[in-house]
Amino acid sequence: MSDGRLRAWALGAAMTALYALAVCVCFWRTLGADVVFVAPDAPIAPMGFAEALRALFTTAPTLQNLVFLLPYPFAYEGTFWVDGYVMCLAGVFLLRGRGSSWGAAWVGGFCVAFAGYFATLFCAGHRGVVDALAVTCLVFGAVLRGVRTGRARWWALAGGFAALGLAAQADIWLIVLCGVAAYGLWLVCVERPAWRRLALGLAVAAGVFLVVGWPALRHTFRDAQTTRAAQLTQATALARTPAEEAEARWRFVTDWSLPPEDLAELAVPGIHGHTSYPFDPEPYTGRMGSAVQTLRQHTVHIGWPAMLLALLALSRRREADARDLLFWLGLAAVTLVLALGRHTPVYRLVAGLPFIDQIRAPVKWWHLTGFAVGIAAGLGAPVVLGRLRVPAVALCAAVAACGVLVVRPYVFPRDLSHNALTVALPPGATVANPLRWSELDAICAWQDIPVEGDLAKADYVVAPAPQPRLPAPRATLTVQGVTLGLYRLRP
Questions:
Q1: Three-state DSSP class for 482?
Q2: Residue 243 to residue 337: CA distance in whole angstroms
Q3: Which whole-number Å values give the CA distances from 204 to 77, 87, 214, 421, in the listed order?
């Protein structure tokens, strides 16, 4: 092994250890086997290794299925940590493909992984979102290498990564692919590849995508689209005229638009509070949410180091190895406007496009904003690494430290040590995140959900009802048409 490659592996090992250390500091209070963090939309699915291995080959392939091979409950938490590392690698993969040094590439990767919206989304759950983001963002680097080299292996990787991302979350996959398509067009204009090799590469990518992603495609255009159509029908059920129906559809699609005042969080994280949970000591006071309720479970802060490095990159805009900086800054600006959703007239044009007209929550475009700023930060890193001679590990440590400060307020530990329910459930049963009854009671009141029964202030867990092998629930509640039961943790 050459000295250069050995140094690259050593740097990679050091950066991996630094990422693991940052994760441990962020989630220190939840690292025990019996403690998890609140993530309502990421249900706990206790299963044995054999069942997890079988699911890996019998369902649409995703990165989550690999993580589920870990012992419970580490699979519950580990998905978010693994996806964060894969997102970091996506930044490294892309920046190395365009010629950045290993140090600058890792800086960009860290900036991408610790971008606040992505890094704090575990607090809402949305496991499929972070999985789709991490994997699909790898397509950027594969397409770059495919256009530059014309080699089929890179196009095959692009198709494979795209298939894995689709299986995780279709709407996020579509948003990221819009960015990939724009980047591909930019590269074609800049690199001017041979058309024959480009057409062959695209054919290889499409073929691999169809083979690997066929189960995900079938699910997306059958089940997922049917579900979204039902949601749109429900949202427009009270409309009496076509104009009222169009307005109701617009409200549904643009719920969870980014309020312009929330952009102040770019400078001051948590300026409007952190989450809408009633047990959050610094609750969110902004207006992100739907017409029915205000609800936010993440931050939109990108990270001070990332934003400063992106600004420093402007000093390199005339250098040959930074010529695509304008693309990434442009992508950040465009997706920032799209994330505003109903708060800008531009979104009416976008929301009318096929498929995109079914994407709910325009704030999802902010994920691409964070990714683009992180890549621009990687392009600006040589200013600090080269001219100021700051070690890459030190600069990544600064990015990680900022990430820790942003992430920690979103970690709410929950103790499962007395949870008899997780032991009694049959393999594969899905359990919502456990909460003490006092907290659950506050959530039900906050969301105006009626709860049947007179319950003592004891420990309960929420699960879809009824559950086999368990007694009848002490109470029931209905959330979005799903009947949930309250089962006591201590029988």
A1: strand
A2: 26
A3: 35, 24, 15, 48
- Residue 449's pLDDT is what? 46
Kindly list the distances between the CA atom of residue 313 and the CA atoms of 95, 190, 323, 369, 398, in Å, as whole numbers in the listed order: 14, 19, 11, 16, 18
Q: Which position has the token pair 């590990």?
A: 393
Residue with tokens 């002490």: 474
pLDDT at 469: 53
Calpha distance 193→150 (Å, rounded): 8
- Report the 10 Å Cβ neighbour count for 14: 15
pTM beyond cutoff 0.90: no
Q: Tokens in use for 359?
A: 């994407």
**CB neighbour list of residue 278: distance below 8 Å, 6 or more residues apart:** 439, 442, 443, 446
Helix (H, G, I), strand (E, B) or coil at 323: coil
Burial class of residue 52 in the structure, from the number of CB atoms within 10 Å of its CB (0-12 exposed, 13-18 middle, 19+ buried): buried
Higher pLDDT, 442 or 345: 345
Give every strand in the sheet of 459-464, ordered side by side. 435-436, 459-464, 482-488, 475-479
**pLDDT tens-digit series, residues 48-79:** 667 677 777 777 777 888 887 777 667 778 88
**Dihedral (CA of 83, 172, 267, 102) sign:** positive
Torsion sign, CA atoms 152, 158, 164, 167? negative
301 dihedral zone (left: phi>0; alpha: psi -120 to 50; beta): beta
Q: Could you read off the pLDDT of 207-232 as tens digits, one per residue?
A: 999 998 888 777 666 666 666 666 66
Give the bridge partners for 65, in sequence order.
none
240/140: higher pLDDT? 140
Cα separation values, 145 from 85, 97, 198, Å: 21, 6, 11
Backbone angles phi, psi at 461, to 5 degrees: -130, 150
* Distance (Å, whole) CA 410 – CA 407: 6
pLDDT of residue 79: 86
Residue 174 CB partners (closer than 8 Å, separation 6+):
355, 356, 359
Q: What is the pLDDT of residue 253?
A: 82
Residue with tokens 């939309």: 41
Residues 6+ apart with CB under 8 A from 426: 468, 469
Say if CB 62 and CB 167 are below 8 A apart: yes
Distance CA(262)–CA(286), nearest Å, equals: 7
Question: Over the stretch 101-142, which tens digit does the pLDDT of each residue have?
Answer: 999 999 999 999 999 999 999 998 888 899 999 999 999 999
What does the domain layout of the chain look like in residue ranges? 3-414, 433-488
Give 246 or 306, the one with higher predicted confidence. Answer: 306
From the list 300, 297, 416, the residue with the least C-alpha distance to 32 is 416
Rounded CA-CA distance 256/413 in Å is: 26
The pLDDT assigned to 423 comes to 37
